[in-house]
């Protein structure tokens, strides 16, 4: 199939600060990794040292032919203590952004990708009534300094993931994208230890991943709306949205009610908060199939994460979302955990075929960003999962692009020809 993307179509990859930067010592996730009895298989440590090596990494992305890069700004680096903002961290991200622009990569910035400052836990974490104002202030500080360099911003990554986690663990279904297992979610002891490392007690310790009850969902919506307002006030040209993890929810006969309920929980309940957004970040990895008794486990090929290998889900989810939202979409994550790079290439091709069909149908899609740039730290799975387009020898930190990385560059070259 030939791809025929519109002008200025973004093709590139995505990362998350904690997973690639290394030594994110002021964050709640660093505390979780180091907590007594932690379920994390490995500590993130230096990760892939992207905080130090970002310039060569951005140059490599450009060399591979990509034209966009989605990365996150780490809140705990910018604001290591409440109301104290690190100018050196701001300058670091300024140079990242300028490096992207010089290399011809459009930056897409995420302001929160799961991790929060330790100090936030002392205030009650993601249950704190102070959260919307404090997060908005962090966004205001960043965009007052850097907004002119940020054309696209996501306030938060996968705002619906806490609900997905709750549902998944409750039904013992498939593993969610961040790879936290059911037992780890339930175990209280290591959370008590993590709370102590954040300077608080378990009663106050409430991370982003725990924000799944009705009150928390409403608070997340408020956080988004206040952050969007703060960003647009100081940087009106920045296009603002958020992202969601959306499996292709399907039903076999008898499973229609299950599927409808899941789709409401995963997507529809969040729609009102998107009024006023400039775009929507759509993230897809697989499908979920429901029957009369709930989720049906996959019988065919599965990935390292236990997901069904189902790149066709991308086009299906784009269509479902576009029926509800009247705003542009960007695929901000789409990927597969596998050591077989030929299967990754197939996943990319098949996913983009579905995306191209959606474009042909008139759906407004601005880009495709693959997860992930590197084989990186995958939360409590450590470094055992391989999502990356670029392999990394973590002893030497040497980068080795895979054929899938070059394939993505070839596809990005198509959009360059169309745009140029």
UniProtKB/TrEMBL annotation:
<dbReference type="InterPro" id="IPR017853">
    <property type="entry name" value="GH"/>
</dbReference>
<dbReference type="InterPro" id="IPR001360">
    <property type="entry name" value="Glyco_hydro_1"/>
</dbReference>
<keyword id="KW-0326">Glycosidase</keyword>
<dbReference type="Pfam" id="PF00232">
    <property type="entry name" value="Glyco_hydro_1"/>
</dbReference>
<protein>
    <submittedName>
        <fullName>Beta-glucosidase</fullName>
    </submittedName>
</protein>
<keyword id="KW-0378">Hydrolase</keyword>
<comment type="similarity">
    <text>Belongs to the glycosyl hydrolase 1 family.</text>
</comment>
């Amino acid at each position: 199939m030939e791809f025929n993307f519109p002008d200025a179509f973004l093709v590139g990859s995505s990362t998350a600060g904690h997973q690639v930067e290394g030594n994110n010592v002021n964050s709640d996730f660093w505390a979780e990794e180091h907590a007594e009895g932690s379920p994390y298989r490995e500590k993130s440590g230096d990760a892939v040292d992207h905080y130090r090596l970002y310039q060569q990494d951005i140059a490599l992305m450009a060399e591979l032919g990509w034209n966009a890069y989605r990365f996150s700004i780490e809140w705990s680096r910018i604001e290591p203590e409440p109301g104290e903002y690190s100018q050196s961290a701001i300058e670091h991200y300024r140079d990242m952004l300028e490096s992207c622009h010089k290399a011809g990569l459009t930056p897409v910035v995420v302001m929160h990708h799961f991790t929060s400052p330790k100090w936030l836990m002392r205030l009650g974490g993601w249950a704190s009534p102070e959260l919307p104002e404090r997060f908005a202030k962090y966004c205001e500080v960043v965009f007052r300094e850097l907004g002119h360099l940020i054309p696209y911003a996501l306030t938060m990554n996968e705002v619906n993931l806490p609900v997905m986690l709750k549902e998944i663990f409750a039904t013992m279904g498939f593993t969610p994208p961040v790879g936290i297992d059911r037992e780890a979610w339930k175990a209280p002891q290591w959370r008590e230890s993590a709370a102590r490392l954040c300077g608080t007690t378990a009663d106050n310790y409430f991370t982003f991943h725990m924000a799944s009850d009705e009150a928390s969902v409403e608070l997340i919506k408020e956080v988004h709306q206040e952050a969007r307002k703060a960003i647009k006030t100081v940087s009106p040209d920045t296009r603002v949205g958020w992202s969601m993890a959306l499996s292709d929810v399907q039903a076999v006969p008898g499973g229609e009610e299950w599927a409808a309920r899941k789709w409401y929980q995963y997507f529809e309940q969040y729609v009102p908060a998107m009024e006023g957004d400039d775009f929507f970040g759509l993230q897809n990895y697989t499908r979920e199939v429901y029957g009369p008794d709930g989720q049906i486990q996959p019988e065919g090929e599965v990935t390292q994460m236990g997901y069904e290998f189902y790149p066709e889900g991308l086009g299906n989810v784009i269509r479902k979302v576009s029926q509800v939202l009247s705003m542009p979409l960007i695929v901000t994550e789409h990927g597969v955990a596998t050591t077989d790079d030929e299967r990754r290439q197939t996943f990319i091709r098949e996913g983009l075929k579905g995306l191209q069909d959606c474009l042909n149908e008139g759906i407004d899609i601005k880009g495709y960003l693959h997860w992930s740039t590197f084989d990186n730290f995958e939360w409590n799975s450590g470094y055992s999962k391989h999502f990356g387009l670029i392999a990394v020898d973590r002893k030497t930190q040497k980068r080795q692009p895979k054929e899938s990385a070059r394939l993505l560059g070839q596809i990005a070259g198509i959009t360059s020809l169309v745009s140029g």
